[in-house]
Amino acid sequence: MQSKNIFLSLIFLGLSLQITSAQKVEKRLDSLILTGFGNKNEPGGVFLASKKGKIIYRKAFGKANLELDSDMTPDHVFQIGSMTKQFTAVAILMLEQQRKLSVNDAVSKYIKDYPSGGKITIHHLLTHTSGIKDFTKMKALSTIAQKEMKPEMMVDFFKNEPVDFAPGEKFEYNNSGYVVLGYIIELVSGQTYEDFIKKNIFEKAGMNHSYYATDRQLIPKRASGYHQKEHGFVNKTVISFSVPFSSGSLMSTVDDLLKWQQALNQNILLNPSETKKAFQKYTLNNGEEFTYGYGWHLKDINGTPDREHGGSIFGFKSMGVYIPDEDIYVIGLSNCDCHSPTEITRNMAKIVLQAGKK
After folding, report:
1. What sequence ranges are listed for the domain Beta-lactamase-related (predicted)?
2. Helix, strand or coil for residue 270?
């Protein structure tokens, strides 16, 4: 009887320590986030942290809409900007898995008249090593920013610009490459990029609150986007989402992005060999390794390898960090491009990682 009581006491002690530890982590995360998202009357954000698929932190801060004075909730939908590139990269690998293309194929196989398209491969586009001109750095961008652009028109907009370097010569982050990838997805699949992502990724992963961005369609729980000016906040600049297209036009929630990460972990979307291609480091022509796979930066947090990517588009910023060794995923979404979740999200991942090692 006495040994049973000791056993129960040990169980209760263990549970008590776990609860205390979880509360300490929550307080540290709260304190960290409030440094950048502490004003309840400003645009805000949503942050989520999970470990081994279990949510350990999920909170909203600030306002989802200033004009309606509506508070942010963890369910709100945000534009995720360049986190879109993860979905574009996986879509390409899905088509490779279906043997409809190869990442070693030349761009000219699909876009016949692309300048130097015989030397630029899909792999170069995926890894930002193509050397083609990034359309976001072109002065003429303002002339098309609010026009409805077909993918072919977007490619035509930048394809004849002088290249910045020879394919494979260096790594330089490039939005144009991912627009070309979106166009190739459409040409190979026979579907629009929007339909391909919806049917092959969102629906398979159960991401019921993720969308190709639109200002016309009604999106339940959509967070409004803002800029901050000297005199205060203003509504985000209007752009045509056909311009960023497959480089930055998706919308999602923190819960759906956790489903996305789990779908990748569980090989729901890709087999292990294709998945591995997204998360391995590659080398330049001179043999030098760089820290980008297909759609993810491959870095580390305190020496522990991670996969991460942020996004920035008018009125919104996003950041996601995944630590594969510990199955830790942290995501931060902001509805003002004045409030960056990047460092906060990385520091959240550090806190969760440290707590797990104690």
Report:
1. 39-338
2. coil
